[in-house]
Amino acid sequence: MSSAFLAGLRFETRMMRRDGAVWFALLVLAGVALFALAMGSARVAAQQSAVDAARADETQRISRLQKTLAQLQESDAKGKPAPEPPPFRDPRNPTFMGGGPAATVAALAPAPLGLVATGQSDLLPPAVRVTTGSKDSFLFADEIDNPANLMSGATDLAFVVVFVYPLVILAMTFNLLAGEREQGTLAMTLASARRPGAALAGKLIARVAAPIAATLLAVAAGIWMFAGWERLASPGFAALAIAILLYGLFWAALAAAVDGLGRGSAFNALTLIGAWVAITMILPAAINSLAAFAHPAPSRIEMVLAARAASTDADKSRDAALARYADEHGGGKPTNAASAHEATLRRLATQEAAFERVEAIVAQHDAQLARQRDMADRLGYLSPAYLTYAAMADIAGAGEKRYRAFLDRIRAFHLDWREFFLSRAKAGASLTAQDYAAMPKFTQADEELAGRPPAGLAGPLIGVALPMLILAIFAWRGLRGCRI
């Protein structure tokens, strides 16, 4: 059996080496993969530059505030008080400093293999300035990219693997039996081989191994050139290679199973193209549409507008309360309206009301999106393309789980940041140099896991491997039962 398999493998390899179309298809596939990795490298560099710029800006702002604070304290110590700066520029004012000038940066640095997939990185900024205001004042304040660019999408390796890679595999494997039957060479193959099934299996492996090997070599070369050779030794690259291998074997098994039905090349081509359209386009779109229908949620724009409307309503409620107070007490202003502390407390009360309303809207929106994602993840096992893209996005550190964890850390840090500044503002205390040194700092919790494959990756890989094995069984039965 092994001799028949190797004979078929060697013969088909020799035939492919002489076919210029095969070389052209493999070179195009490798070139597209390298181009996608180059684009991913540029995107990662832009994200890292944005994070570095945000952190440098934070350092400069805090340094200026500390310098101004030292000058004010020195003037007070010498008995020559300096002119009072406006409240929004006074480094001693916790109400305004926590709301903007002293805002800290919460950043999510690109993962080691971030050049592999765009994922959620084109929807959420890599760095945000956390303030004491509500989330709508900082979380949705920046435009990541030109909306026209976002609509067209980014070219990344995940796109090449999910859409282009299977087309090359199908083109090389769809007519192994049908082509030989139509050319009249199948009879010689079956008559000359002691084990025809093993010989045909060797020919199939030769056709399958070429595009898979070309893709893996191109990916390894691209990561070595654009990310560094040390990435090739990481568990993340091993997981990426397994995902690409399993996805390629799935399409090869599908092509062999269809070819084993004994129909013509035209039937095989139309059937496989229909399967490609269904698996890569129709099923993922249907999964997302069904999840959105079962758990409808407003769009991100509607959620942002609702959050900002809630903040505006809080301001209007405060104005109405002040007007009602003035009307009931017969004066234009409350008795102690001139008190700076009283004005601060009113401002904080307004911020707190806006914060509670915005938090309720954002929490409701996030809960509905979580239900959508859970349902989509369950239905995603119907489409190996959906699972492969999700796995590659997780390997690249741009998957839904990593960004959701990032937002959860921002939510917890936001509460600590508000408590630090608002507790001092409510007590009427001024910020000191010790306070600036003790300000909360946002830490990236997953930096210590850099280079490791993400948790939960086994599920999508198994979801691709199982249908591949089932199709391989049908393909082997078709090869063994082949007749002239």
Question: Secondary-structure blueprint of this entry?
Answer:
Layout: H1 2-17, H2 20-77, H3 94-97, E1 104-107, E2 127-130, H4 147-152, H5 157-173, H6 176-183, H7 186-192, H8 196-226, H9 235-259, H10 265-294, H11 300-329, H12 340-379, H13 384-395, H14 400-426, H15 433-437, H16 458-480
The gist of it:
With 484 residues, this protein is an all-alpha fold. It has helices at 2-17, 20-77, 94-97, 147-152, 157-173, 176-183, 186-192, 196-226, 235-259, 265-294, 300-329, 340-379, 384-395, 400-426, 433-437, 458-480; strands at residues 104-107, 127-130.
Explain what this protein looks like in three dimensions:
The chain is mainly α and about 475 residues long. Helix 2 packs parallel to helix 8, helix 8 runs antiparallel to helix 9 and helix 13 packs across helix 16. About 0% of the residues have low confidence.
